[in-house]
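From the pipeline queue, job 12 of 40. The input is one protein chain; the requested action is below.

Action: predict structure.
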Amino acid sequence: MNFDRKKDFRLMEFLPAGPNVPFLYWIYNPKKEFFEENKNYGEITSPEFDYEKKQINSTWRNGCCEHGQDTYEIKKGIPKLIERFISGEDSQGYGYTETWKLIKGKLELIEKTIE
């Protein structure tokens, strides 16, 4: 899961009513020769691992009217959020999308559209 070609493992923490499935993660430490729990991965729900790009994609939903996809890269053994795409509907029924990107260490809104 950290793209070092060593086997790691995760367990589903619990099965929620919604789609945001949380996991507990253990990453193999080759120096110590055992698996270490890594809570830094804990914020990543429903992860999909892209081994070519060395990225983790996470889809999520925030209630009925907002959902998105987050993209993480591993930096010094810790997953860092580098991009977020949000699609939703505001309280007045207008649809919107937002694109966020990591710029100089801070997640910044790049584009917002209202439909």
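Job complete. Residues 9 and 26 are 5 Å apart (CA to CA).
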